[in-house]
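Quick check before the chapter quiz. The format below is the same one you will see on the exam, so make sure you can read both the input and the output lines.
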Amino acid sequence: MNLIKYFAQPEDTSGQFLGSLRLVMHHTAITLLAVWIAFRLPEAASYILFVWWPKVQDNSEALLITEIALAAFLVFLFHMIRFAWICWRKAKLNEIASLVHARDITDGWLARLADQSLREALPWNRDLFVMDVTGREIFDAEPSGLRNVLKDCHELRVMLLNPNSRGARMRANSLGEPDKVLARFRREVADSIKYLAQLRESGRKVSLKLYEERPLWKLVFAGDRVWVQYCHDGRDTRDCPEYAFALQPRRPERGFFPALFSYFLNRWDDPANPEYSFESSELIYRGGEGMENERIPFPSPELALEAQAGPPREADARADSDGATRRRTQPVPAAAHDDPPGALTA
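Here is the expected output.
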């Protein structure tokens, strides 16, 4: 499906009218200001030549003060011109990169308010695509999560990190105390699956896949916006800066939205990433032609008990990371089981 057609927003005629009205008022105000300055220039020149200059030309102190004031004004004027040029260049770069928002953990309440306003303006009742490590920050009930808006979405596609994979162990090793981190990953993924199951029972179309490789990005696609966080080694994603990029329908080659969405689609279509069956609580591995190759209970009974009991002991966590039992099945057509939604093509 074409990116522009899929993510293009319906035309808002009222919003376009208000935007045009603001532009007209802005240009009218600038024109009136320019006319006022043009009519005031002769009076200002006459005052300087015939009133002010005769008073200061024979007074050395007044002349010195005048020269210092003029020099300070020129310095201020040139600094403002340079500042305006730098701002224009940054705005141009942001336009090319389609960067519409950025927030760091050190930002104050004003940045959080801008981030909240941007989120509220998005069409959450459309399809959402999520790629995260465990989903805790997205599906959490805290205000920073999206639980309040996910209940209004039409379709939700989620990719979470398989806590029993090699990529999860690599991520846990980078964060320190890998056994405790892996146990936390399992609990948080189990909580996310439980919440997604509730959404599915409420009538939402929910699909879940678990990826096996080391996590690189945290992605949330909503409308023509994508929230991005890079999974730095040794840092939790909560401590990483957050960026928001937009799709430019008239210039789709600009920005990172198309590249990040293609990255998500490639991971979603990769047969190495199993889909989760909410009916049987199993991971379904398929071959390149969509034929089912293998089913794995997920979470396994041992891991389910561990998630309910809380943080495990170090020896138990090490045993659980290698103890998932696999149940082999005969290859059957993909239609015999849960059918994932048709993958989009960029």
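If your answer matched, good. The chain has two domains: 11-99, 101-336.
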